[in-house]
């Protein structure tokens, strides 16, 4: 009898310990995950039951919470919704948050660790808890210019202040109206979301940071930088530049755009090759440099970095590994398996503009409590030294030539010296029109803005598109907006 009782007691103790352990794990170990689960209705009511902090551009809220007469208490609303949708994202009772509404959620709800003392003060004084505001680096004129210049074309624009890394414009088209997801009518919110998922151009994706594309000839800036940094080349170095180049180790021919010649006697200088965007010269240069040299240079510009946030996560731009000579030649002109986000190509231009110093890009300037006390203020920081000041100046001079009399003349601004590089990137899919690229900065002698533009599949021009024809005018409009021309 005693043996049976002891066994029963042991089972009861074990069951009690399991119950205690499970309860403890749920209450403490899983607390954060459960609280942040978008399916947790209590979390939704808690977050919507107090005003969420506004998102502010140039002193004006572009997203804010307003009181409503329903169980949630507050509803998110967006002004100029399609202009800023790629930045704000949406905040929905059905689908949670995207973009800044997601990445800055703990600040906007007032739950960030940095706001601990503010929460304590609210608790002591009995004040209603309120979220904090975030003030962005966006220049409204540049943002509007990017949207207007892209028009109905699908693509993206990123503009950066080279000396600081401030993001002055971030646009992804087509945009969308976040108010359609912010409604508390869950049926309507879900219907709007499903419609956007099926819409042409993937409007819910922020192409500026999340989509990777072949960068085409804009990548020639990286190859040129690798050549100059090697010490074996100068802008006046003469390169082999045949009308057609047979890729090393293959029978595949690589032509220049339109089958044109790049120079007399099948030769051209490095500067001239960049000015007219000579494919054969840069492909042969890439093969001569080798993939390791180009990869190392690409990484100094930010390629293959998986932890960049602005604060939304930026997709990793990649330079492929283990390339043979033919693949290296194609990669040197931004084709093969090279992939880059528009943000990455803006960073390349910004680093050159800033004397070779690549600053970390950022979108949030200031975080303030509801009482307007400053919680945090962004400070510019160097991400890497992409190239030496000497190389940066050489690249700048070469890029000025591109805009003054080369493939990028459509980016010219009267009275302003513009530096830039065009790109026309084949997608690798038969029958698809190429992507049109432009990246550059202005004024060249005192840069205030660096910009990257991609227009998917040639935009309104289609298969006849080039970066100089389609993307350069968009970049010009954004640069003009920033420098006030």
What does this structure look like?
The chain is of the alpha+beta class. The chain is built from 19 helices and 19 strands. Strands 3-2-1-6-14-15 form a six-stranded mixed beta sheet, with helices on one face. Strands 8-7-19-18-17 form a five-stranded antiparallel beta sheet, sandwiched between helices. The mean pLDDT is 90.
Largest sheet, described in full? 6 strands, mixed
Radius of gyration: 26 Å
Note the overall shape. Answer: globular
Strand order, sheet with most strands: 3-2-1-6-14-15
Concise overview:
Helices cover 40% and strands 18% of the residues. It contains 19 helices and 19 strands.
Write the layout of secondary structure elements.
Layout: H1 2-29, H2 31-36, H3 41-48, E1 55-57, E2 60-67, E3 74-78, H4 81-88, E4 91-92, E5 96-97, H5 99-103, H6 105-108, H7 116-125, E6 133-136, H8 140-150, E7 155-160, E8 167-173, H9 179-182, H10 186-198, H11 207-210, H12 220-230, E9 238-240, E10 244-246, E11 253-255, E12 267-269, H13 270-275, H14 279-289, H15 291-300, H16 325-331, H17 342-353, E13 357-359, E14 364-368, E15 374-377, E16 382-385, H18 389-405, E17 419-425, E18 435-442, E19 449-455, H19 467-483
Parallel strand pairs: 1-6
Antiparallel strand pairs: 1-2, 2-3, 4-5, 6-14, 7-8, 7-19, 9-12, 10-11, 13-16, 14-15, 17-18, 18-19
């Amino acid at each position: 009898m005693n043996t049976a009782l002891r066994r029963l007691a042991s089972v009861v103790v074990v069951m009690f310990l399991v119950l205690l352990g499970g309860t403890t794990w749920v209450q403490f170990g899983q607390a954060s995950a459960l609280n942040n689960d978008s399916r947790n209705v209590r979390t939704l009511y808690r977050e919507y039951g107090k005003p969420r902090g506004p998102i502010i551009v140039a002193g004006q809220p572009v997203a804010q919470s307003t009181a409503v007469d329903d169980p949630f208490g507050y509803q998110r609303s967006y002004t100029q919704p399609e202009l800023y949708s790629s930045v704000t994202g949406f905040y929905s009772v059905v689908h949670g948050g995207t973009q800044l509404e997601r990445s800055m959620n703990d600040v906007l709800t007032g739950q960030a660790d940095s706001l601990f003392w503010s929460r304590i003060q609210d608790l002591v004084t009995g004040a209603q808890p309120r979220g904090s505001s975030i003030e962005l680096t966006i220049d409204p004129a540049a943002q509007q210019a990017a949207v207007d210049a892209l028009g109905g074309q699908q693509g993206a624009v990123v503009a950066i202040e080279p000396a600081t890394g401030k993001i002055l414009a971030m646009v992804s088209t087509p945009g969308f109206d976040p108010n359609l997801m912010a409604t508390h009518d869950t049926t309507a919110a879900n219907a709007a979301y499903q419609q956007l998922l099926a819409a042409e151009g993937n409007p819910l994706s922020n192409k500026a940071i999340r989509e990777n594309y072949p960068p085409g000839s804009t990548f020639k800036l990286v190859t040129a930088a690798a050549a100059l940094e090697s010490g074996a080349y100068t802008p006046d170095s003469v390169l082999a530049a045949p009308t057609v180049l047979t890729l090393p180790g293959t029978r595949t021919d690589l032509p220049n755009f339109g089958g044109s010649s790049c120079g007399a006697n099948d030769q051209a200088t490095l500067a001239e090759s960049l000015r007219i965007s000579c494919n054969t010269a840069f492909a042969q240069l890439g093969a001569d440099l080798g993939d390791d040299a180009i990869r190392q240079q690409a990484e100094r510009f930010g390629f293959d970095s998986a932890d960049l946030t602005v604060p939304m996560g930026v997709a990793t731009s990649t330079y492929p590994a283990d390339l043979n000579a033919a693949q290296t030649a194609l990669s040197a002109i931004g084709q093969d398996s090279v992939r880059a986000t528009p943000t990455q190509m803006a960073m390349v231009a910004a680093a050159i503009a800033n004397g070779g110093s690549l600053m970390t890009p950022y979108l949030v300037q200031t975080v303030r409590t509801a009482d307007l006390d400053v919680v945090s203020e962004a400070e510019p920081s160097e991400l890497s030294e992409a190239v030496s000041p000497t190389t940066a100046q050489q690249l700048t001079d070469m890029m000025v030539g591109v805009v003054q009399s080369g493939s990028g003349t459509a980016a010219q601004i009267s009275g302003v010296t513009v530096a830039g590089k065009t790109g026309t990137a084949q997608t690798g899919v038969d029958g698809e029109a190429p992507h049109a690229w432009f990246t550059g900065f202005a004024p060249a002698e005192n840069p205030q803005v660096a910009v990257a533009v991609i227009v998917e599949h040639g935009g309104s021009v289609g298969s006849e598109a080039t970066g100089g024809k389609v993307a350069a005018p968009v970049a010009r409009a954004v640069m003009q907006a920033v420098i006030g021309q």
